[in-house]
Amino acid sequence: MGALWIARVDVTDADIYGRYIEVASKVIPDHGGVFIARGGRVEQLEGQGRARNVVARFASVDAAMAAYHDPRYQKALEWAQAASEREIVVVETDD
Q1: Which of 22, 37, 50, 73 has the most CB atoms around its CB within 10 Å?
Q2: Which phi and psi (to 5°) does residue 88 adopt?
Q3: How do beta strands 3-11 and 84-92 pair?
Q4: What is the arithmetic mean of pLDDT over 36-44?
């Protein structure tokens, strides 16, 4: 079964967050992730929204978790956590 990595983000420091994006943009594809949404128009229908939303498709939950636990990604998390408020979930899909 496939998986979606869904990140909902409010960036508080674009320069520092940009460092995180550089690393994540390499690590996620290295683990088979394909970005299907990165930023773009958002229509918040219910609940609290975030300004930036990112969705990546993976072959499995295990592949998405491997990307998250990759040492390069874990190091980049320091920048993301210092420069944003965010939530990330990995959701298994039916395919």
Answers
A1: 73
A2: -130, 135
A3: antiparallel
A4: 90
